[in-house]
């Protein structure tokens, strides 16, 4: 009987660890997505500013 209890306890620990690792993976994926979004937004805003400045008439 004690072996069964040990195995059940070990199984619960492994399940807990799996859940923690899955949550950690989600957090890291969200960080990656946020970083990509920020980089894309920055790039688009920079290009928009470039086009705005380049479309201004040149001073005479």
Percent in strands: under 5%
Quaternary state of this entry equals: single chain
Mean pLDDT: 88
Estimate the global geometry from the Cα principal axes.
rod-shaped
Distance between the termini: 94 Å
Name the poorly predicted regions.
none
Overview of this protein structure:
The chain has 60 residues and is mostly helical. It is 88% helix and 0% strand. The protein has 1 helix and no strands. The protein has one helix at 2-54.
Task: Write the topology of this structure.
Elements lengths: L1 H53 L6
Explain briefly what this protein structure is:
This protein is mostly helical and 60 residues long. The chain contains 1 helix and no strands. The mean pLDDT is 88.
Features:
mainly alpha; 0% strand; single chain; 60 residues
């Amino acid at each position: 009987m004690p072996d069964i209890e040990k195995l059940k306890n070990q199984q619960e620990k492994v399940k807990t660890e799996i859940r923690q690792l899955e949550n950690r993976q989600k957090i890291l994926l969200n960080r990656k997505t946020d970083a990509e979004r920020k980089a894309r937004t920055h790039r688009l805003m920079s290009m928009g500013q470039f086009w705005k400045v380049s479309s201004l008439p040149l001073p005479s």
